[in-house]
Amino acid sequence: MKKHTLTLETNSHQETQALAFKLGNILDKGVLITLEGELAAGKTTFTQGLAKGLGVKAIVNSPTFVIMKEYEGRLPLIHIDAYRLEGITQDLGFEDYLDNQHVIMIEWSDYLPSLNSYDRQHIKIQTLENDRRLITLHFDSDLIEKLKELL
Fold first, then answer.
1. Given this model, what pLDDT does residue 47 score?
2. Under DSSP, is residue 5 helix (H, G, I), strand (E, B) or coil?
3. What DSSP element (H or E) covers 21?
4. Cα separation of 67 and 120, whole Å?
5. Among 21, 34, 40, 46, which has the minimal tally of Cβ within 10 Å of its Cβ?
6. First vs last Cα of the chain: how many Å apart?
7. 10-34: pLDDT as tens digits
8. Coil, strand or helix: which one is 59?
9. d(CA 146, CA 74)
10. Distance of alpha carbon 140 from the chain centroid
11. Torsion angle of alpha carbons 106, 46, 123, 107, nearest 10°?
């Protein structure tokens, strides 16, 4: 499916989470989302909001040291942080979750080149001043249109 781009600005952590919450509300299972952004750009903050939109009740925090966390909600969420995987070439089995049953959110996905062949939605978060963020979504056109209806 053809990707479209939507760029939005948020002014606080709460606004970033609110945007992600809206996105989580419209997602269906089987979605792979990759997150791009510098350290402390707000990738985990975005994932926390998305998780709430998916109905996750658990506290969502960065899986940097455990690499992957799984959360139950309206849809199961797999949250992967590949930051510590740079240069690792072995198969870690993440592809097993690309089964149309999960929503998968991957931070630092460029360290997992094996995922390049999969259809994915992509989010880039850029830090502006203070808590402001520029969030660019490269998503399938139908997801962009659904999200625009909620904004």
1. 96
2. strand
3. helix 13-26
4. 19
5. 40
6. 23
7. 999 999 999 999 999 999 988 999 9
8. coil
9. 18
10. 14
11. -20
User: Is 74 within 8 Å of 54 (Cβ atoms)?
Assistant: yes
Structure-token pair, residue 43: 């990738």
Domains of the chain by start residue, with CATH:
9-150 (3.40.50.300)
Cα–Cα–Cα angle for 88, 38, 84, rounded to 5 degrees: 20
Sheet of 103-107, strand order: 3-10, 133-140, 121-127, 31-36, 103-107, 77-81, 68-71
Q: Quick one: 46 exposed, middle or buried, by C-beta within 10 A (0-12, 13-18, 19+)?
A: buried
Q: Global pTM?
A: 0.88
- Read off the pLDDT of residues 68-118 as tens digits, 9 standing for 90 and up: 889 999 999 999 888 766 556 555 566 666 777 889 999 988 877 777 778
